[in-house]
Amino acid sequence: MADDFSHDVFLSYSSKDQAVVMAVAKRLRRNGLRVWLDFWEVRPGDNILAKIEEGLENSKVLLFFMSGNAFGSDWGQLEVGIFRFRDPLNRERRLIPLRLDNTPIKGSLAQYCYIDWRPMNRNRAFVQLLEACKLFRNPPVFAKTTCDDVNGPQNLASNAISKRITVRKPQSTSRRT
């Protein structure tokens, strides 16, 4: 099924976050992923909306760079909406949010396990991002990933909805007497 898609990853972001996004795009490309980035794909004279829709249709994973800037961007919200409309249960395609700052996560995006891409976490987070993108290129029936290692136990209940996430309960440190 991965062969049905011309791109592995579509990057959705606010232009105000372009420096961070460009660095991620280049790293993903160097690691063998086919990346759709507007800066690389949209040419003068192209219908922007048509190119975005085409990119979303032909991408397996949507990386949504969550930030205060992105939540204020109509384009970012449109891209996430189109992607989710095409696969509302996130089964055939994958929406992976990357958290860029401390802005509260808005609306239905709060139900998704995100990758913490704030500056102090980026080296460790890139390994997780790369694994998630490559894993979903050829997904197994059940992936051995957990959300608590990515961003703590606070979002585990909502993430248990996805059958691709195995939820681990924190072990108790107290003994029964």
Annotate the secondary structure layout.
Blueprint: E1 7-12, H1 18-30, E2 35-36, H2 38-41, H3 48-57, E3 59-66, H4 68-71, H5 74-86, E4 94-99, E5 115-116, H6 122-137, H7 148-151, H8 156-159
Parallel strand pairs: 1-2, 1-3, 3-4, 4-5
Helix pairs in contact: 3-5
Question: How would you characterize the overall build of this protein?
Answer:
The chain has 177 residues and is α/β, with parallel strands linked by helices. It has eight helices and five strands. It has one domain (2-140): Rossmann fold (3-Layer(aba) Sandwich). The protein has helices at 18-30, 38-41, 48-57, 68-71, 74-86, 122-137, 148-151, 156-159, and strands at 7-12, 35-36, 59-66, 94-99, 115-116. It has a five-stranded parallel β-sheet, sandwiched between helices. The protein is globular, with a radius of gyration of 17 Å. The model is unreliable at 139-146 and 149-177 (pLDDT under 50).
Features:
177 residues, alpha/beta, Rossmann fold, 8 helices, 38% helix
Biggest sheet architecture: 5 strands, parallel
CATH class: Alpha Beta
| Tally of DSSP β-strands | 5
Average pLDDT for all residues: 77
* CATH topology tier name: Rossmann fold
Can you summarize this structure?
The chain is α/β, with parallel strands linked by helices.
